[in-house]
Amino acid sequence: MKILAVGDIVGEAGLDTLSALLRRVKREHGIDFTVVNGENAAGVGLTPKQADEMLAAGADVLTLGNHTWGKRQIVPYLDDSPYILRPANYAPQAPGRGAAVFDGPQASRILVVNLIGRCDMQFGPDNPFLCADRVLAEYAGQYDIALCDFHANATSEKIAMGYYLDGRVSAIWGTHTHVQTADERINPKGSGYITDIGMTGPIISVLGVCPEQSIAMFRGDLTEYFKTAPGDCALSGAVFEISMDGKCRSVRRVWERYAR
């Protein structure tokens, strides 16, 4: 089984890129199941229309992160759609769900877990490590392979989670920092891992934002609301090849340019 994880979709440029490239990338890599992080589709958050566009483009599941509530119109959608997850370690009364089992190829059952980190994230979700324990216990016996999108800022927290879940999930990848890392690997107990799969959006940008605006912010200048940068884009992510015993055989980064 081949799993494709696609990094944070940034703005309308990222949506256009996903729509233009995803199905071709899936064909070329023989992908069986695709997870897309969509929390930046509207810059900060996403709308139900944008979520529908990502699913129509070929995503099987959407995951979110610290901008889950950026567009409040997504709130009823989180309860209504079975194909979108918000971080499982948000407060239990929050709308939506943080984990679910989905149909995979050859009648397989795929558990997808969305978690958010706490280090330098400026808000207080539940402990993601303890939440992961609870989720895996809750779904025990109901899935064949498990996947985890860990939306976190600190590389140390992501790496620690990779080892913590090693042998308990088939693949774990980081999102949020928008920069694809070069540390893809199979951890000692058989889980595929990469610290961050990057973003899907403008190439000449600072995490998707116009460079001039980001530079102005760091200089201390008065700035406008951030705008998504123009120009060519890229789809960024990783492919995990999983054997039927749940072990990861290989991890490969994906980066595909899209001329706009």
Name a few traits of the molecule.
6 helices, Purple Acid Phosphatase, chain A, domain 2, alpha/beta, 260 residues, single chain
Computed structural class: alpha/beta
User: What is the CA-CA span between the terminal residues?
Assistant: 32 Å
Number of strands: 13
Just name the CATH architecture.
4-Layer Sandwich
Compute the gyration radius: what is it? 17 Å
Number of individual domains: 1
Percent strand equals 25-35%
Give the helices and strands as they follow along the chain. EEHEHEHEEHEHEEEEHEE
- Spans where pLDDT lies below 50 across 5 or more residues: none
CATH-level-4 superfamily name: Metallo-dependent phosphatases
> How many strands, what sense, and barrel or not for the largest sheet?
7 strands, mixed
Structure description:
The structure is a single chain. The protein has one domain: Metallo-dependent phosphatases (Purple Acid Phosphatase, chain A, domain 2, 4-Layer Sandwich). The chain is built from six helices and 13 strands. The model has no long low-confidence stretch (mean pLDDT 96). The two termini are 32 Å apart. Strands 1, 2, 3, 4, 11, 12 and 13 form a seven-stranded mixed sheet that branches. A six-stranded mixed sheet has the order 5-6-7-8-10-9, covered by helices on one side. With 260 residues, the protein is of the alpha/beta class. It has helices at 11-29, 48-57, 74-80, 128-138, 155-164, 211-219, and strands at 2-6, 8-9, 33-37, 61-63, 99-103, 109-116, 145-151, 171-175, 185-186, 192-194, 199-202, 233-242, 248-258.
